UniProtKB/TrEMBL annotation, chain A:
This is Electron transport complex subunit RsxB. It comes from mine drainage metagenome. Residues 103-132, 133-162 form the 4Fe-4S ferredoxin-type domain. One of its GO terms (molecular function) is 4 iron, 4 sulfur cluster binding. NCBIfam families: PRK05113.1, rnfB. Keywords: 4Fe-4S, Cell inner membrane, Cell membrane, Electron transport, Iron, Iron-sulfur, Membrane, Metal-binding, Repeat, Translocase, Transport.
TrEMBL record, chain B:
This is Electron transport complex subunit RsxC. Residues 476-499 have a biased composition (Low complexity). Keywords: 4Fe-4S, Electron transport, Iron, Iron-sulfur, Metal-binding, Repeat, Transport. Residues 398-427 form the 4Fe-4S ferredoxin-type domain. One of its GO terms (molecular function) is 4 iron, 4 sulfur cluster binding. One of its GO terms (cellular component) is membrane. PANTHER family: ION-TRANSLOCATING OXIDOREDUCTASE COMPLEX SUBUNIT C. The gene is rsxC_2. It comes from mine drainage metagenome. Pfam families: Complex1_51K (PF01512), Fer4_7 (PF12838), RnfC_N (PF13375), SLBB (PF10531). PROSITE patterns: 4FE4S_FER_1, 4FE4S_FER_2. Residues 1-21, 471-501, 516-537, 549-568 are annotated as: Disordered.
């Protein structure tokens, strides 16, 4: 009886030690939930959610401080993804927050005075230029957040909607046959 | 007799090949203009190297390959470049792409060109020649051939030359084999050399006895060793690379594995032909054989200059007036062309003129009854009914789990489906949706990295600035201790003197703001009570500088708040 007790105590101590050790050894840096939420967010870094970037918004969601329907660039699908991830109900966008078509910023290089203000506003360093030099946007890296538009003193930045081209073109969901079924 | 193997499934659609094999390959008439897309191959679009208004010669490079995976584009005849702009192209999207429009001058004047002896030429040079000649896979995949003809010794055992041509209506490879078997085999020999392959197996479906005979004859005549022409059973899609490899060698190329890893490489017969023309004669890929069939007076194969508008081509076969659309490719895998004005490309193996009489619209789709007939015929051994279900429900993760990307879009499943469900359309939809998501995920990842880097950079700059400032103040204090000046604020005098020109603006702003605060709080009233002329002058100078700095600070905007750390 006593020996059985000792064995059990020994096992529990051993397992406890293993668990404690692995908790330290395999400690996950940061909050994994924040990372997961951040991975779903579109990384436009526009601040339209009311937070200074996607990561802070992810942290706010993780803490339960923010709703899941605050990110217009993520679109309806983004809300669905967040709802799935967090196991909560889908919530549609509120009044006044609606996703816009994708766009990239464009600097009218004739008008640009080289003030560097847009450069400081861009969250992803997608603008190249230097003081008193013409600035330009690396279209491939622009997220379309529109943060560079307001600071420009000469209003030379505009958003160009990203049209579809052959490489980004998608096959449509086959709808015609379904319509025919309905007609029968 | 070589033992042949079977692949899973397959169907027997009516072949409709006899219509277009009755006449020899005809040279298509020189069109009024050529619309040559710069993106006719897998990989990066070629970059135009000619100007509008420039006269170009036949065979001249007009688009240079860009990047590793790309191919050159050439002027198909001599003439004048009339435009380099976005034009409708032979693509199912109906979207325009960059094209060079060429007005032929009718002289068909060649640029100087000559071939090489492939036995005397280094493999890298041969591959470079293929790339510069714009040779790509002509079976429909248009993958640059130079990228496919790279191999180490003993890596590739078998080179499969694909002459199966399983898709109904299409006969361009059949006619090419009948009429130009010798050059095909010589091209195959070059490819064998490049790949160090031991044997060449030429697979031809047994519904093409003339082609088989011609190829066998050519093997004997030219005494090609290691080459064998093999008749394979007619079964759609036996011309798929994986399927043909399976039938000829018994090797099952697993999902996600390249056939080269299993020791097999596969080229189309027309590609082998072009390889020979490019290497032995220096002729770039300027034309290809196109079957024009369907709703036409006399279906026939034409040798067509790349860029020839489809309208002008089909007119030569007598396209009937009730034609409603042009299908590029066959009835199983082909796509509708957006317009008759698009130019023939390297991928255009066949144009089927379609009318509702010939191709009645499919009956309405009914719900899937899970009869699994589709699974029985799927050559990729998939479960098409499940894939359909997932694609329809937009459950793309599940679709990928069920190996959506192994689907070769052969259409066998849709062909047998008793509910007439356009299955392939669902798979194409799901695939392009998944690609789109991957692109977006990549873009998001890039943005995340750049944003995080930016935050880190800003933090680092702040710290560096603070450190510099602290050092400077320490230096100033030391200076003050060693040589006490009459100046009540030595830091003021010291700062501009020691400031290095690069980091001045922000630091001066910071220092100025800090000093202003200090002065306002304590020292100012006392200092101004009894001023020497010297001090007064100094204060004036400082005031002026301050005013200037305030102005600059107002310009620099809210982004540059002075860091708190500069107080200490
Ligand atoms: S609203 Fe903008 S900043 Fe906020 S999560 Fe969405 S993309 Fe990121
Ligand atoms: S360039 Fe403008 S719109 Fe584009 S990411 Fe930068 S700030 Fe946003
Ligand atoms: S053949 Fe058509 S009806 Fe039958 S299981 Fe496949 S998709 Fe469903
Ligand atoms: S289209 Fe795809 S799913 Fe259908 S039979 Fe062909 S390979 Fe199989």
């Amino acid at each position: 009886m006593i020996s059985a007790l000792w064995v059990m105590v020994g096992i529990s101590l051993l397992l406890g030690a293993v668990l404690g050790f692995s908790a330290i050894k395999f400690k996950v840096e940061g909050n994994p939930l924040v990372e997961k939420i951040d991975a779903v967010l579109p990384q436009t870094q526009c601040g339209q959610c009311g937070y200074p970037g996607c990561k802070p918004y992810a942290e706010a969601i993780a803490k339960g401080e923010a709703g899941i329907n605050k990110c217009p660039p993520g679109g309806d699908e983004g809300i669905h993804k967040l709802a799935d991830l967090l196991g909560v109900e889908y919530v549609p966008f509120g009044e006044g927050t609606a996703p816009k078509p994708k766009a990239v910023a464009f600097i009218d290089e004739q008008t640009c005075i080289g003030c560097t203000l847009c450069l400081q506003a861009c969250p992803v360093d997608a603008i190249v230029g230097a003081a008193k030099q013409m600035h330009t946007i690396i279209a491939a890296e622009c997220t379309g957040c529109e943060l560079c538009i307001a600071p420009c003193p000469v209003d030379c930045i505009s958003m160009l909607p990203l049209g579809e081209d052959i490489s980004s073109w998608k096959w449509q969901y086959p709808t015609i046959p379904l319509v025919q079924v309905a007609a029968q | 007799m070589r033992p042949l193997f079977k692949f899973h499934g397959g169907v027997h659609p009516p072949t409709h090949k006899a219509e277009s094999t009755g006449r020899p390959i005809a040279q298509a008439a020189l069109p009024s203009k050529l619309v040559i897309p710069l993106h006719q191959h897998v990989g990066n679009r070629a970059v135009p190297v000619v100007q509008v208004g420039e006269r170009v010669l036949k065979g001249q490079v007009i688009g240079r390959p860009e990047g590793r995976l790309s191919s050159a584009v050439h002027a198909s005849t001599s003439g004048t470049v009339s435009a380099i702009d976005m034009q409708l192209v032979a693509h199912q999207s109906g979207l325009p792409d960059l094209c060079i429009t060429l007005i032929p001058d009718g002289k068909d004047e060649w640029i100087a060109h000559s071939g090489v002896d492939y036995r005397q030429t280094a493999h890298t040079d041969l591959r470079h020649l293929l790339r510069q000649a714009g040779v790509v896979g002509l079976g429909g995949a248009v993958f640059p051939s130079d990228m496919k003809s790279y191999s180490h010794k003993h890596q590739i055992r078998t080179l499969v030359i694909n002459g199966a041509e399983c898709e109904p209506y299409i006969t361009c490879d059949d006619m090419l084999m009948r009429e130009r078997a010798g050059d095909i085999l010589r091209g195959a020999e070059v490819l064998r050399e490049l790949l160090y392959a031991e044997e060449v197996l030429i697979g031809i479906e047994d519904n093409k006895p003339e082609a088989i005979a011609a190829m066998q004859q050519a093997v004997l005549e030219d005494k090609h060793a290691h080459m064998e022409v093999i008749a394979v059973p007619t079964l759609y899609p036996g011309g798929g690379a994986k399927q043909l490899i399976r039938v000829l060698t018994g090797i099952e190329v697993a999902a996600g594995v390249r056939s080269t890893e299993m020791g097999v490489q596969c080229f189309n017969v027309a590609t082998a032909y072009c390889v020979w023309r490019a290497i032995a004669f220096g002729e770039p890929l300027l034309s290809r054989i196109v079957t024009v069939t369907g709703n036409v007076e006399h279906a026939q194969n034409f040798e067509v200059l790349l860029g020839t508008p489809v309208d002008e081509l089909v007119a030569q076969a007598g396209s009937k007036p009730d034609t409603e659309r042009h299908i590029m490719g066959g009835p199983m895998m082909g796509v509708d062309l957006p317009s008759g004005s698009v130019g023939v490309t390297k991928a255009t193996n066949c144009i089927i003129e379609a009318s509702s009489r010939l191709f009645p619209p499919p009956p309405p789709a009914l719900p899937c009854i899970r009869c699994t007939r589709c699974a029985d015929v799927c050559p990729a051994e998939l479960q098409p009914q499940d894939l359909y279900w997932f694609a329809k429900a937009r459950d793309f993760g599940k679709a990928q789990e069920y190996h959506l990307f192994d689907c070769i879009e052969c259409g066998a499943c849709a062909y047998v489906c008793p509910s007439h469900i356009p299955l392939v359309q669902y798979y194409r939809f799901a695939k392009s949706e998944i690609w789109q998501r991957e692109r977006e995920a990549q873009a998001a990842e890039l943005a995340r990295e750049r944003h995080e880097f930016r935050l880190m950079r800003i933090e680092r700059e702040k710290q560096e600035k603070a450190e510099r400032l602290a050092q400077k103040e320490k230096a100033a204090l030391a200076a003050k201790a060693s040589a006490p000046a009459p100046n009540p604020e030595p830091a003021i005098a010291a700062a501009p003197a020691t400031a290095d020109p690069d980091d001045t603006l922000q630091m001066r702003i910071d220092a100025a703001v800090a000093r202003a605060k200090e002065q306002a709080a304590a020292a100012q009233p006392k200092n101004t009570d009894a001023l020497t002329a010297e001090q007064q002058a100094e204060i004036d100078a400082i005031e002026a500088r301050r005013a200037k700095i305030r102005e600059m600070a107002a310009h620099a905007g809210a982004d540059d708040e002075p860091p708190k750390s500069n107080q200490g």
